[in-house]
């Protein structure tokens, strides 16, 4: 039977701290917009600040729906559930309003000291922390949730990010995270020092093309276009001129040869 609490009860805190997987859900104001649900691995990424406040550290991904939705309405739900044989079936939902905390503040504000492990704070893909002000805690039985065993955390993102480095991951976020799938401003366009971009739709996604790169590409394209137009306009005179030079060279060579 489901139960509700005004704050996180102490008896479920150990469960929230050790479960390896949780989900975050958000939605835009537009009824035609897309509801988002994302799985997150709990390798130190989730922390409980107090009885009504939690947070999770977010790493790079190909999407950034949560930030776009929070900017509109702040609504966020975080869900945990047990799946191991030894755990009693349980689903825990944390409802509330969230805010985005940028890495610069996480590094400087005393509130965040010691809240997340160094391997996440130093991760090249660290893009933000989401702080949730919880207004409802709800538990339910989870009797229909299957039993599964956790094996290990994936290392693919860690290895990819380390290979790319912070600079390349920053530009990856600009490219992939500037807009939501509904075309709303995304995380990379909200953060301090956001890089100006031009929106480009491709394969059902809205990508952020950095304006500086667009300018360089446009300049190169204009140069090639101008050259093509020049050649088209003056191809006949140029060919005649070249032919004249070649003919003159041949005649001069013959004259020189006969004189010798």
Which descriptors would you attach to this protein?
single chain; 260 residues; alpha+beta; Pnp Oxidase, Chain A; 7 helices; Split_barrel_FMN-bd; Pyridox_Oxase_N; Pyridoxamine 5'-phosphate oxidase N-terminal domain-containing protein
Percent helix range:
25-40%
CATH class label: Mainly Beta
Net shape: elongated
CATH superfamily: Electron Transport, Fmn-binding Protein, Chain A
Q: What's the CATH topology label?
A: Pnp Oxidase, Chain A
> What is the C-alpha radius of gyration, as a whole number of Å?
29 Å
Q: What value does the average pLDDT take? A: 90
Largest β-sheet summary: 8 strands, antiparallel
Number of domains: 1
Gap from first CA to last CA: 113 Å
H-E string: EHEEEEHEEHHEHHEEH
Question: Which regions are unreliable across 5 or more consecutive residues at pLDDT < 50?
Answer: none
Return the CATH architecture: Roll
Tell me what the structure shows.
38% of the residues lie in helices and 28% in strands. The protein is an alpha+beta fold. It has a single domain, classed as Pnp Oxidase, Chain A. Strands 1, 2, 3, 4, 5, 6, 7 and 8 form an eight-stranded antiparallel sheet that branches. The chain has a two-stranded antiparallel sheet with strand order 9-10. Strand 9 and strand 10 form a beta hairpin.
Please give a quick description of this structure:
The chain has 260 residues and is an alpha+beta fold. It has seven helices and ten strands. The protein has a single domain (3-195), classed as Electron Transport, Fmn-binding Protein, Chain A (Pnp Oxidase, Chain A), CATH 2.30.110.
């Amino acid at each position: 039977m489901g139960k509700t609490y005004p704050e996180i009860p102490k008896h479920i805190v150990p469960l929230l701290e050790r479960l390896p997987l949780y989900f975050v859900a958000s939605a835009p104001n537009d009824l035609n917009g897309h509801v988002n649900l994302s799985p997150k691995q709990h390798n130190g990424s989730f922390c409980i600040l107090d009885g009504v406040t939690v947070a999770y550290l977010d790493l790079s991904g190909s999407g950034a729906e949560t930030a776009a939705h929070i900017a509109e309405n702040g609504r966020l739900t975080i869900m945990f559930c047990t799946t191991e044989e030894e755990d009693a079936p349980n689903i825990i939902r944390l409802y509330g309003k969230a805010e985005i905390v940028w890495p610069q503040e996480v590094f400087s504000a005393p509130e965040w000291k010691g809240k997340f492990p160094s391997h996440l704070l130093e991760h090249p893909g660290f893009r933000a922390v989401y702080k949730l002000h919880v207004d409802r805690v709800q538990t339910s039985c989870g009797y229909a949730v299957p039993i599964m065993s956790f094996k290990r955390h994936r290392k693919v993102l860690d290895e990819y990010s380390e290979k790319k480095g912070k600079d390349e991951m920053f530009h990856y976020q600009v490219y992939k995270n500037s807009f939501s799938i509904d075309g709303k401003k995304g995380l990379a366009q909200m953060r301090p020092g956001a890089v100006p971009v031009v929106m480009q739709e491709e394969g059902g996604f809205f990508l952020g093309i950095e304006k500086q790169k667009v300018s360089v590409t446009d300049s190169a394209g204009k140069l090639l276009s101008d050259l093509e137009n020049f050649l088209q306009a003056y191809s006949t005179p140029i060919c005649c001129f070249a032919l004249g030079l070649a003919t003159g060279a041949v005649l001069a060579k013959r004259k020189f040869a006969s004189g010798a």
